[in-house]
Amino acid sequence: MTCIVAGFPSNIAALQFEWAWQNAHLTRHIPHHERISFATTCTKTSPKTGRLRRKPGRPKTSLTDKLSNLHLLLRVPYFSKWPLELRFFSEDVFRFWQTWCQRVDAQISPRIKVWLDKPKEGHDLVPQIHAGLSRKRRRLDAIGRGGVDGVDPTYASLRPVLEKAQLLLEEDNDLACGLCNQSLDPKHDLITVCSQANCLSIYHMSCLSNQFLKAERTAAMLPGSGDCPSCKTHLSWVELMKEMTLRVRGEIEVRKMLRAKNRLVPSGVPQADALQDERSDGSDMDEPDEDVLTAADVVDEDSDDTVSLTSVESDGSHNSTRGAVMKARSNTKLPTVIEDSDADVIDLLSD
Questions:
Q1: Residues 56 and 74 grouped into a single domain
Q2: Could you tell me which residues belong to the region Disordered (predicted)?
Q3: pLDDT > 70: what percent of the chain?
Q4: Residue 169 CB partners (closer than 8 Å, separation 6+)
Q5: Residue 118 domain flag
Q6: Structurally, how many domains does the chain consist of?
Q7: Separation between Cα atoms, residue 139 and residue 126, nearest integer Å
Q8: What are the residue ranges of helices labelled H in 46-176?
Q9: Residue 54 pLDDT > 60, yes or no?
Q10: Which of 277, 192, 303 is nearest to 243 (CA)?
């Protein structure tokens, strides 16, 4: 793997971008006059009728075409406003990307972060040092060390904010918005919590969004970032929405994360270790399954649905639950019921 594109606000948004990148010759996001890849026509002779059949074919793409189409997609208005990040793991590919950016006239939005994520020194020695550990432990030990294996797919970075939010949003507390001074109801209101450790300010999501948009002086619907009105800490709107969405819609993941803190974790093991162990725990057998989206589920990549930054869903997997339920059903034996025959009715009539 040479690079990844991350930071999508939802699973559907990621699938839309994936389809557009893989089908750059068909997507309507790229204008026709800027298109680099074009559809080809494949001809095939029918063995029965002998007629020629023409079908649209996928063009052959090289590394240059892939990066060129990626640059085009990151520049279109539909994707350029998303909080995306482009992370390279290969120095050669990253240098080619920099060269290509210098050649083209148009540039991608400065909001899209692009950097080279190289493995840290000594990362190659980690598999040798931990050769006796399990595969999962070696994978978790590599998180935060750079490279492909260093990508953290867990919610461990949000744990401090979630712990603070749990204490602030208790039902016994009298909660009020730091901007409008109106009361806050954790069960019905969307509440944002400042991620600064010593700041105890909470706000309505709409109030803080309007405050950030006024400071940015833009006509955009969603802000990019802004300063906390209380502590003046610069906050990323994406990070605020990640924490709020996980707190509101990912109650199962939050319980596992906070419960993992109380476990005894050896020193030197990253925070994602305990969280990953909790994910693999089969104690929550009564939790429902979650559907897995595929590229086939995205029918129209140009749908008019507004992509919301609060639509990040939990990625927990509960395959063990399905197997346990099916096994319980198969082992359950229904009682045998013998209905009365019609002969009894005939006897009653004859009497």
A1: yes
A2: 268-331
A3: 66
A4: 175, 186, 191, 193, 202
A5: yes
A6: 2
A7: 10
A8: 63-75, 77-80, 91-103, 126-129, 135-141, 159-168
A9: yes
A10: 192
